[in-house]
Amino acid sequence: MNVKIDRDGCVSCGLCEMTCPAVFRIADDGLAEVHHQPASAAEESGAQQAAGGCPVSVIHTDA
Q: Counting C-beta atoms within 10 Å of the first and last residue's C-beta, which end of the chain has fewer, N or C?
């Protein structure tokens, strides 16, 4: 699985980081970023949950 964030649309709510901190974090500029591509089934599931819960739908997975 590959995970991407359209950072231009990020509203910095932090939901992705709270949902899957192994994959997402808030960068120094205050926007979410993918800091680690999912390496396990649990991380893939967390990334998909974060994508589904993103209020502005800027997280994309190619599962």
A: C
Torsion over CA: 47, 59, 63, 28 (sign): negative
Ramachandran quadrant class, 4 (left: phi over 0; alpha: psi -120 to 50; beta: rest) = beta
- Distance (Å, whole) CA 7 – CA 24: 12
CA–CA gap between residue 38 and residue 29 (Å, rounded)? 23
Does the structure show a pLDDT above 90 at 46? yes
Tell me the C-alpha distance between 57 and 14, whole Å.
13
Confirm if 57 and 5 have CB atoms less than 8 A apart: no
Cα separation, 34 vs 18, whole angstroms:
13
| Residue 45: predicted pLDDT | 97
